[in-house]
């Protein structure tokens, strides 16, 4: 385990605030591709929602709409906060900036003073375990370290809603599992809401408080599962029959949704 | 306080770094050869070619050419003695070289400033690009020699006209490379800035411009070489004022001073090589840390 002190159970046990509210969202691209259809989705404070669905069903589009990069062609997408973190599939670090300067970038774009953003960056770098690599350029980092830097960069915004688009998808399984664990720890410590996209059903069930299953294009929500296991997750739950049963149900829904498309 | 301990997390990742080398890193880093051997294999082949050229040179000069026609290809030692070391030739050469350096570098500097500004303007809106890019292409396509009489008419036959020729020859690679650099900014990076509502100016200064630097420096190196060509060409048409290398070349050739002519041509060539090397060095200094500039 990579935790120095046990995570305190954070104060988000009563999910009340709605941070993301999708109502009947539809996305039709100018070329006629229908990426999303009739999507209703709510993410509340204290929730960590994962979205699983076949490739090309519109998962990235969902996050792009949530972040405001794209506008829904129908329906409404409301945000309960303007502090949004967005971790892309690629680390998108600026190759000419050191780790520190990359992590400082967002605060810099918001016009924060050098001292304030340096403090934030140092804290975020420590939090993601990149201490000692502050002066490194991205090309000198491994894929996992780049994603850590990218995560640290978003953390400086102190986001209330965190969007993750398959952030560790390109990494090997062991690194991915470890980063997932650390992400969950951050979630418990930092009290943000998460909307996390993944291909992996077991990852989804292990990490989240809610799993949303989407169908093939046009992406619709076919089923939603609440995950009853307590946070922070004990890695051992992965070997319990309840966990296996839930993974089975989600996989089944996913396969059914895929078949319909 | 919840902190992820550094040692375990990062230590493991360093392993990952070694087993999956980052694609951007040169592979040679892992299979480094001894440096001395490397240097020999690098310099030996061109050195052999050089020696071969000198030998052929001597053969032609001594055995093929009629001694009366030896000015067509003087012996290397004569070039050195009469063309470089002779005080009269030496002085003329240095003065002309200095003039050419000033003309070409001033022309280059102007071309860089105009070229970058032109490209930045075009990168700001598609309609600006559509209105301005054709003229960059036209500038590239007009045979400069066809414009020379006009330039002489308008700007006289001295320094400023020579500089102008340099600018016109060196401008297009700057415009084209800078525009290419500004336009090939990574889409993810652009969205990162967009998500923070970064202004146009901020995005230009903190994203597009730094991202375009490798392309800009590559353009600079091409333009620098062209500016040297421009200075020599300009010299041959605008002959008033202090002579540059180009004027010296035509003077020596009309007086059949083969040794001095060769010395001047070699100087011009070396100047071109030095400029190319210098701007390569500048590029590597500026962006080599994060970009494989070669
Ligand atoms: N700008 C666009 N114009 C037209 N079609 C688009 C555009 N962006 C995405 N699409 C289409 O919308 C669909 C959904 O794309 P999206 O990237 O959201 O899929 P995804 O679920 O994230 O897939 P993956 O799991 O492979 O990342 C795809 O069929 C894609 O081709
Ligand atoms: Mg996607």
Automatic annotation (TrEMBL), chain A:
Q: Which organism is it from?
A: Subtercola boreus
Q: What is this protein called?
A: ABC transporter ATP-binding protein
Look up keyword Nucleotide-binding and say if it applies: yes
Q: Which UniProt keywords apply?
A: ATP-binding, Nucleotide-binding, Transport
SUPFAM superfamilies recorded: P-loop containing nucleoside triphosphate hydrolases
Q: What taxonomic ancestry is recorded?
A: Bacteria, Bacillati, Actinomycetota, Actinomycetes, Micrococcales
**Domain (ABC transporter): residue spans on this chain:** 20-241
Q: Gene3D superfamilies attached here? A: P-loop containing nucleotide triphosphate hydrolases
CDD domains found in the cross-reference section: ABC_NrtD_SsuB_transporters
GO MF annotations, alphabetized: ATP binding; ATP hydrolysis activity
Return the SMART domains for the record: AAA
**Pfam families tied to this protein:** ABC_tran
Q: Which domain of life is it from?
A: Bacteria
TrEMBL record, chain B:
Q: Provide the protein's localization.
A: Cell membrane
What GO biological process terms are annotated to this protein in UniProt?
transmembrane transport
The record's listing under Pfam families reads: BPD_transp_1 (PF00528)
Q: Which family does it belong to?
A: Belongs to the binding-protein-dependent transport system permease family.
Q: Which PROSITE patterns match?
A: ABC_TM1 (PS50928)
The name on file for this protein is Nitrate ABC transporter permease
Gene3D superfamilies with a match to the protein in the record: MetI-like
Residues that span the membrane, as ranges: 43-65, 96-120, 132-155, 161-182, 203-233, 261-282
* NAD among keywords: no
All copies of domain ABC transmembrane type-1, residue ranges: 97-283
Indicate how the chain sits in the lipid bilayer: Multi-pass membrane protein
- SUPFAM superfamilies (UniProt xref): MetI-like
Main subcellular location: membrane
Q: Determine if Endoplasmic reticulum is one of this entry's keywords.
A: no
InterPro entries reported in the protein's UniProt record: MetI-like, MetI-like_sf
For this record, an example GO cellular component is: plasma membrane
Entry keyword set: Cell membrane, Membrane, Transmembrane, Transmembrane helix, Transport
């Amino acid at each position: 385990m990579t935790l120095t002190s046990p995570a305190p159970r954070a104060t988000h046990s009563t999910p009340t605030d709605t941070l993301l509210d999708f109502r009947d969202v539809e996305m039709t691209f100018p070329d006629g591709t229908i990426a999303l259809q009739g999507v209703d989705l709510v993410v509340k404070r204290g929730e960590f929602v994962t979205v699983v669905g076949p490739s090309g069903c519109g998962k990235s589009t969902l996050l792009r709409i949530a972040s405001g990069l794209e506008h829904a062609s129908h329906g409404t997408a409301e945000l309960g906060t303007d502090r949004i973190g967005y971790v892309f599939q690629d680390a998108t670090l600026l190759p000419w900036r050191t780790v520190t300067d990359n992590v400082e970038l967002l605060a810099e774009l918001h016009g924060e003073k050098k001292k304030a953003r340096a403090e934030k960056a140092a804290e975020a770098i420590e939090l993601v375990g990149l201490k000692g690599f502050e002066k490194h350029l991205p090309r000198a980092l491994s894929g996992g370290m780049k994603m850590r830097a990218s995560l640290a960069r978003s953390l400086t915004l102190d986001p209330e809603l965190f969007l993750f688009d398959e952030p560790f998808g390109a990494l090997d399984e062991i690194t991915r599992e470890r980063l997932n664990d650390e992400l969950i720890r951050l979630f418990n410590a930092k009290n943000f809401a998460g909307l996390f996209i993944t291909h992996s059903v077991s990852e989804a069930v292990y990490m989240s408080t809610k799993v949303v299953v989407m169908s093939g294009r046009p992406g619709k929500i076919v089923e939603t599962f609440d995950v009853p296991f307590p946070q922070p997750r004990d890695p051992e739950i992965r070997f319990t029959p309840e966990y296996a049963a839930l993974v089975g149900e989600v996989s089944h829904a996913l396969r059914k949704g895929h078949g319909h498309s | 306080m919840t902190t992820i301990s550094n040692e375990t997390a990062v230590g493991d990742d360093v392993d990952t770094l070694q087993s999956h080398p980052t694609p951007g890193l040169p592979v040679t880093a892992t299979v480094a050869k001894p440096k001395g051997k490397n240097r020999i294999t690098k310099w030996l082949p061109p050195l052999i070619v050089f020696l071969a050229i000198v030998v052929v040179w001597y053969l032609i000069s001594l055995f093929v050419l009629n001694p009366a026609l030896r000015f067509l290809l003087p012996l290397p030692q004569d070039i050195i003695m009469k063309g470089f070391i002779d005080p009269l030739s030496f002085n003329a050469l240095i003065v002309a070289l200095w003039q050419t350096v000033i003309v070409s570098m001033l022309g280059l500097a102007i071309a860089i400033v105009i070229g970058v500004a032109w490209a930045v303007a075009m990168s700001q809106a598609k309609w600006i690009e559509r209105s301005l890019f054709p003229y960059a292409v036209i500038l590239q396509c007009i045979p400069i020699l066809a414009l020379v009489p006009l330039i002489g008419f308008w700007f006289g036959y001295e320094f400023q006209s020579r500089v102008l020729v340099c600018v016109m020859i060196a401008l297009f690679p700057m415009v084209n490379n800078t525009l290419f650099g500004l336009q090939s900014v990574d889409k993810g990076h652009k969205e990162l800035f967009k998500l923070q509502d970064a202004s146009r100016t901020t995005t230009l200064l903190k994203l597009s411009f730094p991202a375009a630097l490798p392309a800009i420096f590559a353009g600079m190196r091409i333009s620098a070489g062209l500016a040297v060509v421009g200075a020599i060409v300009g010299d041959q048409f605008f002959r008033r004022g202090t002579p540059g290398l180009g004027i010296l070349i035509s003077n020596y050739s009309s007086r059949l001073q083969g040794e001095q002519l060769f010395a001047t041509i070699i100087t011009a060539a070396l100047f071109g090589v030095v400029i190319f090397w210098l701007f390569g060095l500048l590029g590597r200094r500026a962006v080599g840390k994060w970009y494989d500039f070669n």
